[in-house]
Amino acid sequence: MFYNSQNFKQTRSRRIITAALCISLASQVNFQLFSHGFIISLAPLIMSVFLYFNTDLHPIKLMLSISIASPFFRGLLLAISNENNQNAILTFILADIAFYFVYSILYYFLYWQSESTTNSFFLLTIIICDYFSNIVETGILEGFTNYSYRLFQILFLIALIRSLLGSITSFLYHYFNLMLSKDSHERRYYHFVWIAASVKNELYFMQKNIDAMEKIMKKAYLLNKNLQGKIENGNKHSTTALQIALDIHDIKKDSQNIVQILTNYFNDSEGTKPMKFSEILRIVTRYSQEKIHERHSNILISTHNHVEMLVPKYFYLVSVLSSLIFNSIDAVKNIPEANITILCQEESKEIIINIIDNGSGVDDEIKELIFHPGFTTKYNKKTGDTYRGLGLSRVQAIIKEQFGGDIEIQSTFKQETNFKVILNKQLLSE
């Protein structure tokens, strides 16, 4: 949806009216001090908070709205109460208007027109605005007589306390929002890294499939050559073999285009900085914890890391660790007190990662098969469809081919499972 300038003007007008009404109502929470009609209210405190978070609103327009609404409410209440005569009520209203008028002029020239917008300068500005506005308001009520040094001290103290409370409220709320925003950005970043890791691994195996297609295509082409004229119907079969080679070539070409396009977006060799090992663990564990929370499971993941190094090909490591942790999550999903422990240790030439869970364990017969391509225990019992995932055979392939390592499994059926990942330290850091 597109918004024109009229929509923005209406939005700003509504914000100004809302602020004027809220601040005017807040001004009714007050107590009287010094002279008859001089009140100490919450309005300037709330006003400073509103000014801090609405820097796009013209302060004079805002203050003019408040200087109409606030005296109106105050004058109406004073008239209904019958405690003051008309001249006194008019004086109170004029003093109220003068307070907001002086405040707006000072704020406009000192802060809104200034290039400096630091928090300390904002605090200094509203102290000055509050202080001099109080002096003018008191002067109108007292006929600009009866000023004393003691009065100026008290007015400054009032301005200081009120401005400090307003500024502290604004700064704390702003800081809290920044923390929430940072946490939200961090979650999105972690999610992006996890998705990018998944895509990178799919690209890796797609490239391997392309290489396999190339070999099959060559075999089909050689078969075409060998069949020509050598056996009965040889030409017919050789034509079929040639067509197979051409079809595979077309599939290979399409696959290469997909790989090339995605590689341009997820290329870890250009413009991507290495990631700390501890950061990789943080991404993997946090994403896993979010998935555990979505499943409403009670699973505790604890990490004990003694490795600190930079990993250039971190996408592959993210996928390996994520896959193993999700395997553990599935294994402990029916355990009352489920625990997954990640131990990372550094040896002279190797990085050892143990992922241990107290889940269902792995039967001895299955241990021999879990790293075979195509083997899975995760399937839909109703449809027979297997669940998609990286798969332990692919995990093993990445560990061996990318990091010169290996993966082992130690498991006691219905007690505990430990996947031990061994990585070559030098290849991990390259």
TrEMBL record:
One of its GO terms (biological process) is phosphorelay signal transduction system. It holds the Pfam family HATPase_c. Gene3D superfamilies: Histidine kinase-like ATPase, C-terminal domain. The keyword Transmembrane helix applies. It is an enzyme of class 2 (transferase). Keywords: ATP-binding, Kinase, Membrane, Nucleotide-binding, Phosphoprotein, Transferase, Transmembrane, Transmembrane helix, Two-component regulatory system. InterPro entries: HATPase_C_sf, HATPase_dom, His_kinase_dom, Sig_transdc_His_kin-like_C. It catalyses: ATP + protein L-histidine = ADP + protein N-phospho-L-histidine. The keyword Cell division does not apply. GO terms for molecular function: ATP binding; protein histidine kinase activity. Residues 251-427 form the Histidine kinase domain. Its EC number is 2.7.13.3. The chain crosses the membrane at residues 38-55, 62-82, 88-109, 121-140, 152-176. This is histidine kinase. It comes from Tetragenococcus halophilus (Pediococcus halophilus).
